[in-house]
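Q: My labmate handed me this sequence with no annotations at all. I'd like to see what the chain might look like in three dimensions before we decide whether it's worth expressing. Could you predict it?
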Amino acid sequence: MSPALRRVGIVAKARLERAAEHLSQIAAWLEARHVQPVFDPETAVLAKAAGTTARFEVLDKDRMAAEVVMVLVLGGDGTLLGMAGRIAQAGSGIPILGVNFGSLGFLTEVTLPEIFSSLELALAGEARIDERMMLHVMVEREAERVVDRIVLNDVVVTQGALSRIIDLSVTVDGEFMMRVKADGLIIASPTGSTAYNLSAGGPIVHPQVDGLTITPIAPHTLTNRPVVVPGASEIRIRPFLQSEQDEIFATFDGQSLYPLKNEHNVVVSRADRRLRLIRATSRGYFQVLREKLKWGEV
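A: Here is what I predict for the chain of 298 residues:
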């Protein structure tokens, strides 16, 4: 990151009132270093409620993703995922620094006492930055592309609230893989392996592994096990609805969903863009696993 950094975006989880005081302090800290704080509208409301005296700009999140040189996220992983998608769609490639106000926070791993030291390193161009694989997902209907998204964690094909078990056909690079009857199916990036994939019994995949994980959710046949395929693979999922009353949805990073019909195909591959994630210098990946999951403890 250039030492000439001048505008830093700041996004807090919606209605996270306990972040308000920190927003005021961060804005003042940045202003004192001749860096312009930029809030999204909801975060600006929180900052004003805390009596922020620093001068700041207000931009919506899509414009922020395209116009600032770094985004500081205060919240949980969901807040960071929302900004990661916007940055990918903008094609700006700016890094994200995530500060954890949630419960687990695999992505927002920086703690409150580490905010200013992490910002100092970022401003000096000395921060440790991980590049994380993202997923390109399309939903096609015959020759028409009806959804085109980039996500960080996962694409989930799942049943509606009143639906029975769903029937999906899966191919990898044009080769038939399986016909699975289950509550759903998860296609996860290595970063997303510790999200829904992990809860569904899928493997933990190190972020530097170039692979995609295919994990059935509560499969009807116990031999339908999670599979890791090469990162360059193209995965195609075709739903088979039994009646008009059945509901199947494709969900993208848990942020939005799209209803599927028999004529749809969900196509997932590795995205050309990668997320640049500013990491805490004091912890490695396996230490994060131990802290968040109590992983490996006896």
